[in-house]
Amino acid sequence: MRRFDLSLYLVLDPDLCVVHSMAQTARLAVAGGVTMVQLRDKAATTAALVETGRELKAALAGTGVPLIVNDDLEAAVAIDADGFHAGQDDVPAEVARQRLGPGRILGLSVETEAAVEAIDVGVVDYVGVGPVFATPTKPDHKQPIGLDGLARLVRLCPLPSVAIGGLKQAHAAPVLASGAGGMAVVSAICGQPDPQAAARSLSRSIEAWRLSH
Fold this sequence. Notes:
alpha/beta; thiamine-phosphate diphosphorylase activity; ThiamineP_synth_TenI; TIM Barrel; Aldolase_TIM; Thiamine-phosphate synthase; single chain; metal-binding
């Protein structure tokens, strides 16, 4: 069975991980409470992604936190990553599942009701819903859906969901109130002076909301 926790999902950004490398950022963030880590680098070659991914695998070894690779299916397989995340314009989910096999996690981005309705629950494990807000870390993102749009898509979604897109600590409560299983963040951790402290603060906000509801 593919097990994962979407509560605090870190999407690594190479442009922000300067003071701390992506591997260092991931290790510190997981120590602070991050529950999943995604490697996303749209500009990298497959070979470069594989090299970074192997560094991340080593950094996360023994933590139990899954490493997900975005966009590049061949890199995900070569790294022996725990999973793969596909956008609507990437490789079809069915093809990704065939390459990944039954044991790895498969995520899919959804931005519209039509995309949610098209999900094959026998193939995909979770969905990333957004972008909730505009974000400079992904300048080619689709039109932001806002918190109301997030809640609408989460209600329709038959799978666990994680919100993404411009999310900060202040958004933890409304994101969780929407019914999402967690929040994905980039700059709220990547590029912060202390990624562990940033992750811990986010994790505590999530936990506090859950304890009060």
